[in-house]
């Protein structure tokens, strides 16, 4: 619903600032726990990186090394099957979970060796990872589907969803459980008392809260400056495009350096994505899209005949060390962060909602949040 003009002070237990899949997941989890929750967003819900993202649940394909990020991704991926059923039951909306798996294609010998090494450590970590030589890959995908490769690592347990479908299911379910949402309600500053955050000022008035969660993606660093905080989160522009297809050429996600191709259940094909340091400029540009389309056609020649649907651009929340920032803010009671997920916001949305629910309800968290603490 719209923010509108308000003169009265709103009050809530938990206020979430930011209405992408991260904020919506937290709102859903808190509402399910019976916590009074209000979420606000300065635009439409999901209008930034959620709208622009591919929707990969790439717990393995996105990870170069073992460590906390890999473990967090695997833990989150494991939640999606049950989460889908719960959201479907509450809201009747399907996140469009697709489970054929992902092929991570090698484009040269160096890439091949890195992927073979990745297969070893991921198997040692208890995850499935299968190697296919080029001929085997062609037998599965067809010669007209994929160009020449140096083999591919197949990740059967990495899946995908459609971002907007996931967001709608989370929001509808959270609303059904009692959470409130205000769109077009921009936070302008924090409310503080005795050093603690007790709410926010918006352009429409004051919202008081016992706890405030910043799930504001690429904008979190800017908002933190209002309290003198150095939150190491910054915008990274990602450009991609959609193609129209009544029948996508393959059910599998095809992934390689700088380019990934995802067939969607609505018949479209998502092709992404660039990584650009361009500040807060969200406009698509011809050069980046031309380079991306050349990569995509080289990887999957059959895409060349598909009609172009639309360009997409959005700002991912990057972080200095590539890890998200999750948890409370030392020295600032009442303030919590859930940001910096970069390319993995959709993948990590499930575990982020869960651990923030645990943190805000005083329950021991499912994963160790120390590697993701602001002061790490």
TrEMBL record:
One term of GO molecular function: glycine oxidase activity
SUPFAM superfamilies, per database record: FAD-linked reductases, C-terminal domain, FAD/NAD(P)-binding domain
Pfam families with a match to the protein in the record: DAO
Location of the FAD dependent oxidoreductase domain: 13-359
Entry-linked InterPro entries: FAD-dep_OxRdtase (IPR006076), FAD/NAD-bd_sf (IPR036188), Gly_oxidase_ThiO (IPR012727)
Pathway(s) annotated for this protein in UniProt: Cofactor biosynthesis; thiamine diphosphate biosynthesis
Catalytic activity: glycine + O2 + H2O = glyoxylate + H2O2 + NH4(+)
Enzyme Commission number(s): 1.4.3.19
Entry keyword annotation includes Repressor: no
Keywords from the UniProt entry: Oxidoreductase, Thiamine biosynthesis
Domain of life: Bacteria
Enzyme class: oxidoreductase
Annotated protein name in UniProt: glycine oxidase
Source species of the chain: Tumebacillus amylolyticus
Gene from which the chain derives: thiO
């Amino acid at each position: 619903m719209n923010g509108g003009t308000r003169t009265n002070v709103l009050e809530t237990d938990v206020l979430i600032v930011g209405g992408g899949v991260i904020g919506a997941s937290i709102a859903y989890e808190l509402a399910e726990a019976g916590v009074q929750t209000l979420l606000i967003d300065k635009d439409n819900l999901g209008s930034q990186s959620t709208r622009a993202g591919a929707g990969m649940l790439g717990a393995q394909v996105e990870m170069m090394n073992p460590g906390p990020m890999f473990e967090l991704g695997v833990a989150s991926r494991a939640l999606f099957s049950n989460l889908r059923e719960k959201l479907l039951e509450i809201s009747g909306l399907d996140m469009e979970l697709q489970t054929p798996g992902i092929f991570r294609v090698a484009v040269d010998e160096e890439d091949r060796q890195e992927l073979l090494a990745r297969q070893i450590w991921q198997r040692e970590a208890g995850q499935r990872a299968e190697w296919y030589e080029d001929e085997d890959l062609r037998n599965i995908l067809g010669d007209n589907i994929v160009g020449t490769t140096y083999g591919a690592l197949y990740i059967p347990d990495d899946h995908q969803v459609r971002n907007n479908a996931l967001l709608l299911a989370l929001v509808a379910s959270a609303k059904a459980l009692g959470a409130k949402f205000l769109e077009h309600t921009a936070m302008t500053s924090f409310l503080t008392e005795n050093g603690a955050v007790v709410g926010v000022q918006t352009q429409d008035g004051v919202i008081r809260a016992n706890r405030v969660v910043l799930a504001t993606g690429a904008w979190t660093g800017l908002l933190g400056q209002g309290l003198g905080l150095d939150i190491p989160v910054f915008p990274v522009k990602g450009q991609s495009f959609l193609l129209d297809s009544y029948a996508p050429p393959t059910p599998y996600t095809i992934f390689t350096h700088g380019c990934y191709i995802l067939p969607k259940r609505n018949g479209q094909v998502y092709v992404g994505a660039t990584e650009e340091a361009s500040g807060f400029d969200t406009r698509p540009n011809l050069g980046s899209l031309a380079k991306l389309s050349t990569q995509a056609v080289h990887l999957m020649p059959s895409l060349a005949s598909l009609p172009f649907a639309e360009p997409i651009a959005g700002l991912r929340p990057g972080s200095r060390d590539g890890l998200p920032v999750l948890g409370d803010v030392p020295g600032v009671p009442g303030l919590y962060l859930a940001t910096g997920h970069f390319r993995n916001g959709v993948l990590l949305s499930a575990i982020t909602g869960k651990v923030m629910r645990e943190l805000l309800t005083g329950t021991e968290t499912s994963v160790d949040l120390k590697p993701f603490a602001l002061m790490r």
